Amino acid sequence: MAKRNWAWVSILLASTALGGCMRSGHSRSHYADRSFPSSLSRERYAHNPQSPFVAVADAPLSTFSADVDTGAYSNTRRFLTAGSLPPADAVRIEELVNYFDYAYPEPAGSEPLAAVSEVGPCPWSAEHQLVHIGIQGKHVRHDEVPPRNLVFLVDTSGSMEGKGRLPLLRSGLSQLASTLRPQDRVSIVVYAGDSGVALAPTHDKRRIKDALDDLDADGSTNGEAGIHLAYEVAARNFQPGAINRVILATDGDFNVGQSSDGELVRIIEEKRKTGVYLSVLGFGQGNYNESMMEQLADRGNGNYAYIDSAQEAKRVLVDQANSTLVPIADDVKLQVEFNPALVEAYRLVGYENRALNAEDFNDDEEDAGDVGAGHTVTALYEIVPAGAGEHTGKLDPLVYQSESNMSAASASAELMTVKIRYKQPGDSQSALISFPVHSVSTAASSEAFRFSAAVASFGMLLRDSPHKGSATFTSTLALAEGAVGQDQDGARREFLGLVRTASKLSSGG
Q: Predicted confidence band at 272 (pLDDT cuts at 50, 70, 90)?
C-alpha cells in the first residue's frame, strides 16, 4: 500500500492512586484529561503527524493511495462506548469517513470505478472551501461472485482468551461460513506457539462451525509460522479466477518467531506475489497491536477491520462480504492538480499514512490501495482560495514557468483536476480516469457532503487537530443531524450518539 511512517507509539500510562484510572500522555489544551483503564496500557498505534496546509506555488500536486479500511472507526467506537476518549493516534480520519455509505452513482458499462465531486463551504472555516471526492466501486451480484478459496488464519494464543476475542471471532467466522456456496472452500489454520491445519478445505458448513467451536486459546503467539502455513494452504488450493484470500483474525500480539513490524511486513510483501489477498480482522483490547494489523493488511493487498461486536462482525463478514472479499480494482491511486489561479493552498483531510510521491502515481510497480466490489472511497480537501494571503509559497517563483499556462489557468473555472489510476485484478498495467472539479459551489450541499464533513470534523476534534478551526462537538452534531437521511442500517444515528458521548467525556462528564 502507500508509504508510511512506521514509527511505533505505545500508550504508556501511569496508574493513579485509585488503580482504575490512567492518564494519557496526549496534551489537550481545552479538554479534560483523557482517562484510560490500566488494561489498555499495552495497546500500540502508529504515529502519523497531521498533514499541514501546502501552498500550491510550492506543490501543485497531491498524491495518495486509496483507503477502504474502517478499523479506526469501530476501534474509536469501542473506546467511547467503554467511557473514554480514544488516543489521538487511534483516530485516522479517512477511516472514520469511509465507514459510511454515501450512495454514489454506480459505474457505467464495464468500468469498475466511478467518481463524483462536490464543492461547498467549509463548516469549520468560513473563509475556506471544502471539496468532496467520492469513488464508487462496481457492485457484484451474489450469483456473479467467483468461487471463494478462503483460509481462516486464527490466533489461538493465550492472549485471545476472554470476551471480545476468541468467542467473538468464532461467531464472526461462523456467520461468514453460513454464506458459503457449493463452489466455495474454507480451510482453518491455527497458530499459538506452534501452527497447524485445524480444517482441510471444505464447503461443509457444519464441519466448519464444529472446527471453530473446538478452538481454544492457549500458549504464546508465533504469527510468522501461522502466516507461512496459511499462505501455503491457500497456494495448494489456488484457483485461477477465484477469490484466493487469507483472513487473519488476531489481536496482533505476536511474541514468538519474527515479531517485529518490519520483518512481518516483508514476509507479507513477498506472499502477496502469489496472488493471494489478505484480510485482517482485529479483536480484543489491552494488548491490541493495531499498528501491526493495519500494516499487514495494507502490504498484503487487503483490508483491515476491527471487530468490536457481533453486529460489526456481521457487517464486515456477511452484509459487506462482497466488498470485503471480492477485489475489483488493485493499486488505486489518486492525484490532484490544483489551479494556482483559484487555489492558494490546500490540505488533504486524513490519509497521512497513505501519502505518495508525485512520481509514484504513474509507476505501476508502486503498491497502493485495493478496492472491493461496492466499496466506496471518500476524500476531502480543505481549500484556501487564491488571494487569501494565508499561505505564501516558501520557494522562489519559477523563472521559466510557462506564461501561456498561467494565462490558461487564470481563465479556467476549474478548481482542480482529479486523476485516478487503478489495475484490473491480475493486471500489471494501470488504467486512468481523469475529470475536472469546477469552482462553483452550490448553496445547498448534499447529504453526503454534509455528513462526511461532520465525520471529518468529529475526527479532528478527537485528535485535537490544529486545523479544527471553529468546530465543536455541538456544531458537529448539528451538521450530522441535518444529514442523517434514510440511514437504513442505523450507522448514522449511532454516530450521533458517539458525538454526544465524546462531547460529555471531553468536558469531564
A: confident
Rounded Cα gap, residues 61 and 63, in angstroms: 6
Please give the single-letter amino acid code of residue 370: D
Closest by CA to 410, choosing from 310, 339, 491, is 339
pLDDT per residue over 96-150, tens digit each?
999 999 999 999 988 999 999 999 999 999 999 999 999 999 999 888 999 999 9
Same domain, 159 and 128: no
Question: Any idea what the CATH number is for the domain that residue 209 is in?
Answer: 3.40.50.410
Indicate whether 334 and 246 sit together in one domain.
no
And the C-alpha cell for 223?
504469527
HSE-CB at 416 with a 13 A cutoff on CA atoms is 31
Cell of 118: 462536490
Residues 108 and 149 grouped into a single domain:
no
Angular region, 304: left φ>0, alpha ψ -120 to 50, beta rest: beta
In a domain, 310, yes or no: yes
Q: Where is the domain boundary, 272, 291, 325?
A: 325
| Contact indicator for 469, 382 with CB cutoff of 8 Å | no
- What are the backbone angles phi and psi of residue 444, rounded to the nearest 5°? -110, 100
CA atoms within 13 A on the CB side of 30: 8
pLDDT of residue 30: 37
DSSP letters spanning 436-475: EEES---SS--HHHHHHHHHHHHHHHHHT-TT-TT--HHH
Domain-ending residue, one of 280, 305, 325 = 325
Are residues 114 and 206 part of one domain? no
DSSP for 33-88? PPEE-GGGTT-EEE--PPP--EETTT--EEEEE-----HHHHHHHHHHHTTSPPPG
In angstroms, the Cα distances linking 103 to 118, 137, 181, 455, 489 are 14, 11, 29, 16, 13
Asked if residue 98 lies in contact with residue 435, where contact means CB atoms within 8 angstroms, the answer is: no
Residue 7 contacts by C-beta under 8 Å, 6 or more apart in sequence? Answer: 46, 47
The residue behind cell 454506480 is 106
- Burial group, residue 3, by CB count within 10 angstroms (0-12, 13-18, 19+): middle
Cα separation of 423 and 489, whole Å? 31
* Structural domain that includes position 456: 8-138+328-398+414-506
pTM, two decimal places:
0.88
- Clarify whether residues 199 and 245 are in a common domain: yes
* Whether residue 448 is found in the same domain as residue 501: yes
Of residues 409 and 10, more confidently modeled? 409
Average per-residue pLDDT in the chain?
Answer: 86
